[in-house]
Amino acid sequence: SRTKVLEQLYNKFPDLFLSSQDFSRFSMISRVGDFDFDIIVRVPNFPDPKGASVEMEPAFSHLLDQCEVKELSSRSQNMTELLEGIELLLLKNEHDRKKPPLLCAEEVKKTAQVLVVLDEV
Fold first, then answer.
1. Rounded to an integer, what distance in angstroms lies between the CA atom of residue 68 and that of residue 73?
2. Tell me, what's the pLDDT at 104?
3. Contact 29, 16 (CB under 8 A)
4. Which of 100, 101, 102, 96 is nearest to 32 (CA)?
């Protein structure tokens, strides 16, 4: 039953919150790096994850490809798989972001020279 599935989801995902009476809209806090943000998971046929979609704040939308979400929802067997998959996609995309390369000694020296000139100005 829907209630039993919901209880299991709450046990596994403490940040999950049912935000509609018809079980079609859930809110969940996600964390990427140092930032917490809210995602909305729409599930038209709860507890069947097929056709689910994810909405999130525009500032974080680059972390979740909607095509990946659509594929994930179509192959997920249950809601747990869907929510775990969303978390994995966010984690994967966090790690895939390019980290700025460390400056070599020559670049540090040039940067220091530029800062000296700017300081004089």
1. 9
2. 66
3. no
4. 96
